[in-house]
Amino acid sequence: MRPPRLMKVFVTRRIPPEGRAALARAADCEVEEWDSDEPIPSQELERGMTGAHGLLCLLSDRVDKRLLEAAGANLKVISTLSVGVDHLALDEIKKRGIRVGYTPDVLTDATAELAVSLLLTTCRRLPEAIEEVKNGGWTSWKPMWMCGYGLSQSTVGIVGLGRIGQAVAQRLKPFGVQRFLYAGRQPRPQEAAALQAEFVSIPQLAAESDFVIVACSLTPATKGLCNKEFFQQMKTTAVFVNISRGDVVNQDDLYQALASGQIAAAGLDVTTPEPLPTDHPLLTLKNCVILPHIGSATHRTRNTMSLLAANNLLAGLRGEPMPSELKL
């Protein structure tokens, strides 16, 4: 009797060990992995996808119509090691009846912790202070030197009060924040109640917040949301933080706002493009802190994400309910 044909799975990057182990134990799958921490070239991705039944990808892998055509009719499941899905051509995927798994919830805490870290780092000017210690700029104690902005008695505005936005607010509350504002597609009274957060328009949030934290999804409605008009509405003492997606911000407008003193400072964990070119104007500014998209970068979180992505993929291939399926 002929043994059953194995299902081909292609993994676009070297993933954390718990996910790799789950795939290795799958006796009904033949797993091919791009064994590198660096992105797979598009030609190699198309080659690897040919005839594949399942794809495990990252947010940096663009899964478009061309790649789906290269994969062919066997492709049944795409599992992304991310909560964001803006790298997936969802309309094309839906047309083909392909199921999609993603990794919500498991990265909420780590990303919220990073958001608070980035906010404090930016508003208290820590990179500047560290550099002054190293370059000899620290000469004595001076009353006005290295002064930043504190959270006590402040107003914090959150664009997008989803899982991550709520987790950020919960962590900021003990710092003595006086008032929380939030904006989004619609009010979320149940979620806002615990924080006593007020639903306001985007212009009101920009105008009244001492700290603006962007935690929304990237959609056609939010692309370029934080632009010249947005920054002009902000206080000159306000601090802006983006942990969502780079395309939510017009980076040229942000540069002008920071360079001209229209706003006090900005902290970014996401940019457009990623990685940001080393000669980008934002990197010349002392009042702009940029991190390399490390919101979920704890050992535990990345391992949990990889295991969930692997289990989503395997469940989809076997026609079973996925632990976290994106409903198309």
UniProtKB/TrEMBL annotation:
Gene3D superfamilies named in the record: NAD(P)-binding Rossmann-like Domain
A UniProt-annotated Pfam family: 2-Hacid_dh_C
SUPFAM superfamilies reported in the protein's UniProt record: Formate/glycerate dehydrogenase catalytic domain-like (SSF52283), NAD(P)-binding Rossmann-fold domains (SSF51735)
InterPro entries in the cross-refs: D-isomer_2-hydroxyacid_DH, D-isomer_2_OHA_DH_cat_dom, D-isomer_DH_CS, D-isomer_DH_NAD-bd, NAD(P)-bd_dom_sf
Oxidoreductase listed as a keyword: yes
Swiss-Prot/TrEMBL keywords: Oxidoreductase
PROSITE patterns per UniProt: D_2_HYDROXYACID_DH_3
Domain D-isomer specific 2-hydroxyacid dehydrogenase NAD-binding span(s) in chain numbering: 117-295
UniProt family annotation: Belongs to the D-isomer specific 2-hydroxyacid dehydrogenase family.
Protein name: Glyoxylate reductase/hydroxypyruvate reductase isoform X1
Gene transcribed to yield this protein: GRHPR
